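Annotated sample (chain length 103).
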Amino acid sequence: MNKATSNLTSQAATVLITIVISMTGFWMMIGREFVTREEASKITETRLELIKENMENFEQDSRDLQRSIDENNNSINNLRIELAKLESAMTSLSNLLERIETR
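Output written by the structure step:
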């Protein structure tokens, strides 16, 4: 039994050392690439500031676009009025020409 216990203890120690070496290797190779809580906080703050700035720019662009649309609508309405005036003038000229031709 003493030899069996010794073998079991030796195997457990070997497994434990293997686990510790594996974990150390993991943290040395991969874990060093992880960010700290402070770095994550800074990254989050920076991203939030960028999102806020983008939203402000978007809102300003939306207002500018709406203003341009309103101006274009006003221009189109003015052109419709001018076209109606021209149509009326053309109709009057056409009627005048018909009267002249019928004389």
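Annotation: The first helix runs from residue 2 to 29.
Annotation: The mean pLDDT is 88.
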